[in-house]
Amino acid sequence: MTATTHPLPENYLNTAYGWRSWLLTTDHKRVALLYLISITLFFFLGGFFALLIRLELLTPAGDFVQAETYNKLFTMHGLIMIFFFLIPSIPSVLGNFLIPLMIGARDLAFPRVNLLSWYIYVIGGTFTLTAIVTGGVDTGWTFYTPYSSTYANSNVILTALGVFITGFSSILTGLNFIVTIHKMRAPGMVWFRLPLFVWAHYATSIIMILGTPVLAISIALIGIERIFHVGIFDPAIGGDPLLFQHLFWFYSHPAVYIMVLPAMGVVSELITCFSRKRIFGYSFIAFSSIAIAVLGFLVWGHHMFVSGQSPFAGVAFSMLSFLVAIPSGIKVFNWMATLYKGSISYDAPMLYALGFIGLFTIGGLTGLFLATLAVDVHMHDTYFVIAHFHYIMVGGAVMAYFGGIHFWWPKITGRLYPEGWARLAALVVFVGFNLTFFPQFLLGYLGMPRRYHAYPEEFQVWNVMSTAGASILGIGYLIPMIYLLWSLRYGRAAPSNPWDARGLEWQTASPPPTDNFETTPVVSNDPYDYGAPEKSERRAGEVAIV
Amino acid sequence: MTNGLPFLPDRASTVALHVDYLIGFLLAVTVILAGTIFVLILYFAIRYRRRRHSAVQIENNLSLEILWSVIPLGLTAVMFLWGAKLFMQNHQPPPNAESIYVVGKQWMWTIEHAEGRREIDQLHVPAGKPIRLILASQDVIHDFFIPAFRVKQDVVPGRYSTLWFEATKTGEFHLFCSQYCGTQHSAMIGKVIVMTPADFQVWLGGSRDESPAKAGAQLFQDFSCANCHEPGPRQRGPNLSGVFGKPVRLASGETAVFDEAYMHESIVAPGAKVVDGYRPIMPSFREQLTEDEIMDLIAYVRSLSSEGTKQ
Q: With contacts defined as CB-CB under 8 Å, which chain A residues touch B8?
């Protein structure tokens, strides 16, 4: 749909047209675009549910929708945003598109499996959408038993099946990335010349492969209990409800890192490029990703401090949760040091990256409140938790995703987006985000529980602010949607390296040819070679530039 | 309700102030750290902007890396130790705490005082006395949350949870169910009414409800518990007089304390912990008894021990 007005050299977009060339493609760049379109649809659907939630909470009384409808709205908002937007967002779109380009490969290791992942994702999404259209589901995205396995009357099985299926898409993507990063690197692309984006995706892939099967198991067990009445989680038939929470969080806590590690990878790329600096502490950032992936598997019990789990287990999980904060802190400090004595420009991707650092810092520090046992007893299941994880996932992951989309938009589409509009949108998103979620910290401390359809009057003032913020945030997300689509047709043609960045992906044409590089690049420098003279011939052995 | 913007929740229990001190410490660390980071970002972004500054490459500094790993590690160690210590302190009720029985069900709280008074979605307690709640759920997981007391406990079906507090000031405070429990979750709210001990005694006396122990005695007869659990030719289970709160030797060789949780388990899953010397022949009463009735039975058996004699 893009390349009709400009005569461009043959690239992955104009090499073939028609439905078959897209739906049967094995080109990682085209699969990435298939993902981009599908997750964008889910993002706006999940956002629409969020809007309805905020409208209900504008007044204390439950007067905008019925309680049952409200419960379905927050359940579907959570399910869609987590499983169908955040988890696939950066890995499946940007990771898919960029990893082969960044390491100098022609494609992922298993191109057909890559397409299969997308189909599995679409099938899982279809199940979930069907569940929504035929009545919805009201268990909360956490599916806590025995409510989900025995008491809920909504479409639990259909939804669970959707999430179960989509999990396999995640597993296959993780597998594909790991094999690609091990086996497909171009000559000279040794491990410590990998962009930090690739390191982050490597760590993410480990979590996807090891964690997702446990989610599949716990969801399958709910199905077995619901359909065959085998006592697994419901104590009335001999099960243990806490067993479900252990299984669920064993995946779902690491899943937070599936969402935020790739975001950290994006931010490392943006910070270096827009401050013209080599990354500070490359190996510390790289290994902190791995440390987060490993430690992330040992902290699930911090979701269960007041669940009736042994208090001694609570103490152990609290300690481990504090440990996982350290590698995240290391990243933030290294990004700051990268800014130091840089040559900083305020292009839209950089605004998103700086926004990420600020919001992620708040999200991370408020996480410490929840890791502190005696404080979590008060804050658990209140709006404090909601605010905390939205700072991580929206302030963190979504900001980085938008930053990344803008940064690589010229590479992906061959078009430049309008910079002024983009900077404006980044500011609107930042303001709207803070106005939406900051008041929720106070609501939580005041004691407002999450998942409440109606609430006492004294909480209203903060809820009004939050709803006002959400409408600004919504506008902030719609603006890029409009100008990015506009740029596909009217944007100026992008040069191969509009940001004068140093990564390998910028050394090929925009958009890249189907095979990515004319000849296999030979790599002799690291990806943040900003110290070298501008536009140097530093990659002496490489003839990839079109 | 207060005018203007509410920032502080009520503080009405002995632990609330200690929790708030800890929150204050965390807030101070957060503000200092986040503030430093924001100021530095803004400073760097302006001081080193493209028009004024070209980049100076600096790549690594091991001592800096160690410094900004070790300082946060130290700070988080303080948070961890402080939080864990307070949590463990707050976990153990004082031995003189009075017990009140609470059952959560979709979507209400039913509450029974040992003296007999029953209430729904309201909990009357005296100020200045430690109160221990024994919580059960009839259906799904609920959560008993009193923000003004800074206490919260999930109420999980199939097991007993406990929660204790000592209220420090009289008044009415919110009681919320804070674990999502279905359609009317946000209507599963109530009030905790803290009274002076004198007022509380008057309130307790104003009841014509049957005491849980009395109701339990009736159930004990209705379900023929006495057949097996009272001395006589047909006794096939342990005598329940004078055993409450004491250790019992199990057939497995282990020892268990005969408390509320033990007795609940022995009613719904009698085979789990059989007393030494008896055969595992008791059927489960899971289907026959509601959680309220089990609590009445427990109150009855408890009364057999506190009086020291059999009725």
A: 446
ipTM score for this prediction: 0.90
pLDDT in tens, A249-259: 999 999 999 99
Largest CA distance in chain A: 72
Q: How many CB atoms lie within 10 A of CB B73?
A: 14
Hunting for tokens 């052995």 — which residue is that? A541
Q: Whole-model pTM?
A: 0.91
Asked if the C-beta of B39 comes within 8 angstroms of chain A's C-beta atoms, the answer is no
Cis before A506 (ω within 30):
no
Q: Do B87 and A377 touch (CB under 8 A)?
A: yes
CA–CA separation, B216 and B290 (whole Å): 12
| Residues in chain B within 8 Å Cβ distance of A378 | 19, 23, 147, 150-152
Residues of B in contact with A371 (CB under 8 A): 76, 79-80, 83
Distance of CA A273 to the CA centre of its chain: 21
Instruction: Compute the C-alpha angle B188/B192/B194, nearest 5°.
Output: 175
Asked whether B185 and A71 are in contact (CB, 8 A), the reply is yes
Q: How many residues does chain A have?
A: 546
Pairing label, strands B122-126, B171-177 = unpaired
Alpha carbon distance A410, A363 (integer Å): 31
Instruction: List, in sequence order, every residue forming a beta bridge with B192; answer none if it has no partner.
Output: B123, B173
* Cα–Cα distance, A379 to A370 (Å, whole number): 7
Sign (positive/negative) of CA torsion A260, A262, A266, A271?
positive
pLDDT tens sequence across A392-433? 999 999 999 999 999 999 999 999 999 999 999 999 999 999
